[in-house]
Amino acid sequence: QDYDFLCDLLRHEREKGYVVWVLGPAVDFDCNARSAMADLVRCGYVDAIFAGNALATHDLEAALFHTGLGQDIYSKEVVYNGHYNHLDAINRARRAGSIEALIKQENITDGILAACTEKSVPYVLAGSIRDDGPLPGVLSDVYEAQSAMRAHTKKATTVIGLATQLHSIATGNMTPSWCLAGENVRPVYFYTVDISEFAGNKLHDRGSLCVKSLVTNVQDFLVNLTRRLLAESR
Q1: How is residue 195 annotated by DSSP?
Q2: What are the CA-CA distances from residue 87 to residues 81, 92, 131, 191, 218 (Å)?
Q3: Beta bridge partners of 173
Q4: What is the pLDDT of residues 120-160, one digit of tens each?
Q5: Which phi and psi angles does 8 have, rounded to 5°?
Q6: FRET partner for 170 with CA separation of 20 to 30 A, picked from 1, 149, 161, 193?
C-alpha cells in the first residue's frame, strides 16, 4: 500500500508538484540503486536533491572507478587500494574546477550527478566539518547551506529522505507541513526511508509530525519504486 500510494503521488507531483529528495551515500554503494535514482531524475520525478559531500563524492567515484568503500559496486569484489578512490575523485574534481566541469571533461554519462547535469536538476551539497576535500560546490557555511535548501523547501510538495538521518532532520526542520495548490491547502508529504528504525523515528521525534517512515534498505526501495514507475509510464 505504501508503494501504491507513493507511486500515485509521484505521478501527480511530476506534473503539478515539486519533489525534493534528500540522499545519503548508501544510494551510491549499489549499482542498481544508483542507476534507479538516476532514472528517476531523467524521467522527471526529481525537482531538487539535497545531499552532502559523501553522496556526490561516491557518485563520481562510482562513475570513474566503479568502486565504493573499497569494493566494486557491480561485483562486490574487494579492489586493491580501492578505499583511496574517493580521494582521487575529489582531486580530479578540484583540478577540473567544478563537478560539472569534471563530468564534461571525463565524459561521465552514468550516475546521479550526471543525470542532474543533463536534466538541469539543482542539487544542494551541504558540507560537514569532517568532509574529505570537500568537492568544489559543497557549501561549508551552514547558514549558506540552509538558505540554499530553504529556497527549495519553500516550494516542496513532497520530500523523500533516503538513508541520511542528519540531512533528513535538517530538511524536516525547515519544511512547512502544508502548501497551497492554487487556492487549496494541501499537505507536504514527507517520507523517510532507512534500515534503522531509530533513524526513521528520529525525525518524527524532532517535530516533523507529518513524516511517514519506512523501515527498509534504500537499495530495495529505489529499485522497486523505479521499476514500478517506469513500467507504468511505458
Answers
A1: S
A2: 11, 9, 11, 32, 25
A3: none
A4: 999 999 999 889 999 999 999 999 999 999 999 999 999 99
A5: -60, -40
A6: 1
